[in-house]
Amino acid sequence: MAGHRIALLRELVLRELGFVDIFKKVKDEENAKAISLFEDVVRLNDAIEDEGKRVENLIRGILAGNIFDLGSAQLAEVFARDGMSFLASCQNLVSRPWVIDDLDAFKMSWTKKSWKKAVIFVDNSGADLVLGILPFARELLRHGTKVILAANDLPSINDVTYPELIEIIAKLKDENGQLAGVDASGLLVVNSGNDLPVIDLTAVSPELAFMASDADLVILEGMGRAIETNLYAQFKCDSIKIGMVKHPEVAQFLGGRLYDCVFKYNEVLNY
């Protein structure tokens, strides 16, 4: 858990010096841009008739959105210089097979089973959340899955916080409580109790622990939560760890490439 300790130290020093939410302006701007594109992204996904291809496109969207990460010095420099296009990022993902690639196994599970409740630990603001995670969550809702989105309690880099997530969902829902034509009454938002870009799953909020007690699918997204601290975490239910590799040291450890993709799916039989 060295990454967890380093992240904790960094956040403590920043807060002691009065830097509580240094990326707030950037997050707000990126959320507004992503919200304006949400319906177009959803429409493109809905137009894919083949269910397997649609699911793969949604997963690619999560990975493409995850590149918007100001915790990576290289990506922060690119973002500041050129900005980032979500659709271009989708098209420019590294080729499969990825360094960890269980996508085909997940697509098979998608067609043969249905999950009653999914918990998704969200990561960055902007395209990551709005154009990556939320279209996938919407697809789960269409299949009758209740979805719990777990977000940070306090700001950390450009990670979305619990209050920000509530506000974003409210802006995306229409007057009938639908998310681009899909009933969103089964979509819940919960405070994870976390305040870091990584997460210790033994120390989540009591509210999240209660709401997740009967989940049959857990999704951890982002390099910090999914790869650096929980890649080998075992669950009693199905789980997905998904994220982009943005640090050379992590790429070397995994035996992959910088900006490679991780999609680790573990299916628990007879859950």
In this structure, how is the largest beta sheet organized? 7 strands, mixed
**What's the CATH topology name?**
Rossmann fold
Q: Fraction of residues in helices?
A: 40-55%
The general outline is globular
Number of helices: 11
The strand line-up of the biggest sheet is: 1-9-8-7-2-3-6
**For the CA atoms, what is the radius of gyration?**
17 Å
How far is the first residue's CA from the last residue's CA? 29 Å
Total number of distinct structural domains: 1
Order of helices and strands: HHHHHEHEHEHEEEHEHEHE
Cofactor: Ni(2+)
Pfam family, one: ARMT1-like_dom
Domain Damage-control phosphatase ARMT1-like metal-binding: 9-262
GO molecular function: ATP binding; pantothenate kinase activity
